[in-house]
Description:
Layout: H1 3-29, E1 39-45, E2 48-52, E3 67-70, E4 73-80, E5 87-89, E6 96-99, E7 103-108, E8 111-115, E9 121-124, E10 130-135, E11 139-140, E12 142-145, E13 158-159, E14 161-163, E15 168-169, E16 176-182, E17 199-205, E18 212-225, E19 228-248, E20 254-263, E21 275-277, E22 289-294, E23 304-307, E24 311-312, E25 317-324, E26 330-337, E27 342-349, E28 359-365, E29 373-390, E30 396-419, E31 422-429, E32 435-441, E33 446-452, E34 457-464, E35 471-477, E36 483-490, E37 495-500, E38 505-511, E39 513-515, E40 523-524, E41 529-531, E42 540-542, E43 560-563, E44 565-567, H2 573-606
Parallel strand pairs: 16-34, 17-27
Antiparallel strand pairs: 1-4, 2-3, 5-44, 6-43, 7-8, 7-39, 8-41, 9-10, 10-11, 10-14, 12-13, 12-38, 15-36, 16-35, 17-28, 18-19, 18-26, 19-20, 20-21, 20-22, 22-23, 24-27, 25-26, 29-30, 30-31, 31-32, 32-33, 36-37, 37-38, 39-42, 40-41
Helix pairs in contact: 1-2
Amino acid sequence: MGLSQSLYTGYSGLHTHQRSMDNLSNNLANVNTVGYKKSDFMFSSFFKKAISGGNPEVNGRSATNPIGVGLGTTTGAISTNFKQGSTEQTGKPLDCFINGNGFFLAGTRHGTALTRNGSFYLDPTNNPNERMLCVGEGMPIQGWNARDGVISPSQTIEDVLIPAIGDKMEGQSTSELKLTGVLPTVAKDSDFAGKQTDTLSLAGNLQGDGQTLRTHIYAPVTQSSNGSAIKDEIQKIEVEIAFSGPTLSADGTTNSYTWTMTTVDWPNPGDPGVQVYPAEGDPTFSQGEMAFHATGSTSLKVGAGQSVSRKVEPGQSRVSTDTVDEEGNTIRSTFRLPSDFTVDVSRLTNLNDSPTGAGLETWHVNGNPTGTIVRTLGMFDDYTDFELVADENGLETNKPVRRVEPRENAIIFSRTDSDETGNTWSWESTMGGDSGELKFNTRGELVNSTQEGDTIQYNFEEVQNTNYEATMMIKEQNGYRDGLMTDVSIDANGKVIGHYSNQRSVTHAQLAIGTVPNINGLEGATGTLFYPGVASGGIQVGIAGDYAGELGLEPIGAGVIQTQVLERSNVDLAMEFTNMIQIERGYQFNSKVVMTSDEMLQTALQTKR
């Protein structure tokens, strides 16, 4: 071995320390890269060159050790340090951080990659109504998409796709309803005073002549015997509204209906109907006319659009009926509609192509008779609306569109019996015509409830009968109005949730989380991506969290997701600068070795002189 060997040994030190500095500079360059994992550089010694071998003990001579000289240093390993980095609160709903050892899965042209970068965003696709959840330079995040509202995960993952902002959710009519509150054991006078009707709302489609609707109103009824008042209370009065028409206007643009409202069996069964609305003889409202837009043709066969008149204002209506009792006394019953009584016809339509055909209903009637407790509950119900739609020729026609909107549903409670076993109440729903009975024991507990009709299922299990004031409210219901998606978020288990303007949320997708048996065997790639290698083992796919949940996937110990948080680089600046000093010193020492070896060679050359 000559002096030149020390030059090469010094060179190996220079070269390896330079490579270590390259690695360190890359760590520092990525100190602010989201999800970056630092690389740890390991030095390794070259094998020693033997000068002499070892000898065993022979003939009393002691054994000798082998003698060798090292030939320098080289790169032993550059390994990724997967220590979890610090976190940063961003406030962005799509930013995610895995608190654990799992990885997000991203689709690339080389296959599925793993990443700790949770800086997600939505990217347009070829479908204008769809967006793709991406990371980095347009790489799709993978998981499982909901189909028909159901997520069925398997080992086959796919790019996560969700509807675009503005996606419409069809409303759902209320069919199940849970109530909670108190019906008092001793009702106060104010609870039973009753309230007269001042608003009657109608809905449905007028089609052809002679349609009628039977409904009811509540009005204060005064009874007198031979001129002396004997009773004054609010009563339920059955009425019938008869429509006639349509009559096309002279210019062919408007269909009109006339209508009247009369009593039915009031005050006694079999009594002839008496016109109560519009006020008989009132010159302004004697026709009770409603006008509808006609569309596209003067023919009555062409459907009309929404009503022109949003409300038909009232006149004064006073109705009196005389009967004679068994003693020959003349009993007069009288009621008057209030001056602000309103029949709301804004939901009435006149369309031949209505999906529901002809049919009328009472949308809402407020008020309640004396001797009842009424609670008006917000419900959701569907109806047919119409909007202008342009056909292929550009002509606008009215088309039926299903809408779901809030609807007031009054439930009338009336105490019917009280004895030593408890109280009994009857109830009636004005929305669907459902009715039933509630029985309470002396402790105020509901022991039995019945209901007739199947429009809505009412659950009274949490209703009590106590000495407190009468209260009643909806605790839960399954109805909701139409809505548009306003934003998207991700929860701790990786569910991608769309939030809608109707206060509803829908899970559109589920993020997949992956791990590998040997994390140090992963192969690094561009950015913060890693691919499984021959030493890492294959990707094990699961979901975040510690339980299988409704998806049926077993936990894989990948950790949980924290939202609106990003994982920063795990580069430790203090440690990196300390390592930089050590690398610089190592480089200087090896430079000195090269310089000294050169001087020694010069000295050897000079011995010739």
